[in-house]
Amino acid sequence: MADIYKANRNVFALSRRFRRSGNVASPMDFGILVAVTGVGRGWRVIEAGCGSGFLTAFLSNSVGQEGRIVTYEVREEAVRIARSNLALAGAENVELVEGPLSVVEHEHPFDLACLDMRDADAALPGITGALRKGGWVFVYSPFMEQVAAVHRAAGDLPLKNIVTYEPLVREMHVDDRGTRGRTQFLGQARFLTFAQKA
Question: What CATH code is carried by the domain that includes residue 106?
């Protein structure tokens, strides 16, 4: 079964078999990421806050063998889980580093920087300097206060097209009486902020 998954590179199907170390990104988050940034074949990505490796596996598939991802994670248990998940996904174009984010160790520029970390606003100046002109920053935040801090920090940097989305998913109910949205919907607290290097 694993060979079929790897041959098809269906990351969403494969991710059902991933171990988790906390909240993970949803397929809608991935869709928004692609729609906003255009991430694709050959892109160079730097990531801080790999977690279980869900986003990393998706990005690995998106950038292909021509691309490269360097991802950082400070939690030892999360690193173990991510290594296992990335191996399952066949993500051979990923370098997973246990420790805090460091841009100075890598050849610049990057096309995309993904930050899923508490003080993403503090990391913005260094990460912006490591991006190519037109490259993107993507920040995944669980709290609105973090979003505000990122917007304030981005305003002081050569960044444009700064926008934040809150993805909400609602299933539709269809029966003989009609069709309507269910009263409950997926509203996991998460905010997706994007900014492009000017």
Answer: 3.40.50.150
Q: Taking the complete model, does pTM exceed 0.90, yes or no?
A: no
Please give the backbone phi and psi of residue 79, each rounded to the nearest 5 degrees, phi first: -60, -45
Over pLDDT 70: what percentage of the chain? Answer: 84
Structure-token match 């690995």, residue found: 60
**Of residues 128, 92, 93, the one with CA closest to residue 110:** 128
pLDDT tens per residue across span 107-146:
779 999 999 999 999 999 999 999 999 999 999 999 999 9
- CA-nearest of 144, 129, 124, 165 to 35 is 165
For the chain, list the strands marked E by DSSP. 44-48, 68-73, 94-98, 110-115, 131-141, 159-165, 172-175, 178-181, 191-197
Report CA torsion sign: 165, 36, 50, 145: negative
| Residue linked to tokens 């690193």 | 79
Q: Please report where in the chains the tokens 């996904």 appear, as a residue.
A: 89
Number of domains, the chain: 1
Domain that holds residue 91: 2-197
Question: Which residues face 115 on adjacent strands?
Answer: 48, 139
